Amino acid sequence: MEKTFFIIKPDGVSRGLVGHVLHRMERRGFVIERLEMRQATPELLREHYAALVDKPFFPKIEEYMTSGPLLAGVIKGNRVISSWRTMMGATNPKDALPGTIRGDYAQAPGDSGGIFNVVHGSDSAESAKKEIALWFGSDAL
């Protein structure tokens, strides 16, 4: 079975959407293997978003992702990486279709540029391994 990493971002937590998102995962047949409510540190986020650190919009991401608690976790299931990404919907909420998590729950971007999009999911098996190890340690693999 494949594993992937996910985050319910601070907007999802503060708006009371954790149960809705977890319910969709379970209804889809994914197994929730690990969950942890935590406050992200700037250091952790710089590693997680290493490819974006030099981008002009990164300070907004960092500010947002440290603005409140988030829920980080690991789910497993058949083709869970691609399935979870489909369930999340397009990164930019204005492009996310109804029925997806972002299409149903994310708020259309204003000055945020789409970062208030409720959830994150690894985009590949390599990213999943890296993100799981980063957030939970290599024993979680």
Automatic annotation (TrEMBL):
Keyword Phosphoprotein: yes
Catalytic activity from the UniProt record: a 2'-deoxyribonucleoside 5'-diphosphate + ATP = a 2'-deoxyribonucleoside 5'-triphosphate + ADP; a ribonucleoside 5'-diphosphate + ATP = a ribonucleoside 5'-triphosphate + ADP
GO cellular component, one term: cytoplasm
Cofactor(s), by name: Mg(2+)
EC number: 2.7.4.6
Alphabetical list of CDD domains matching this protein: NDPk_I (cd04413)
Ligand binding (ATP): K9, F57, R85, T91, R102, N117
Active site: H120
Keywords, sorted A to Z: ATP-binding, Cytoplasm, Kinase, Magnesium, Metal-binding, Nucleotide metabolism, Nucleotide-binding, Phosphoprotein, Transferase
An individual GO BP term: UTP biosynthetic process
Limits of the Nucleoside diphosphate kinase-like domain: 1-139
GO molecular function terms noted in the UniProt entry: ATP binding; metal ion binding; nucleoside diphosphate kinase activity
Subcellular compartments: Cytoplasm
Quaternary state and interactors: Homotetramer.
Similarity comment: Belongs to the NDK family.
Function: Major role in the synthesis of nucleoside triphosphates other than ATP. The ATP gamma phosphate is transferred to the NDP beta phosphate via a ping-pong mechanism, using a phosphorylated active-site intermediate.
Protein name: Nucleoside diphosphate kinase
Organism: Streptococcus minor
Source lineage: Bacteria, Bacillati, Bacillota, Bacilli, Lactobacillales
Gene that encodes the chain: ndk
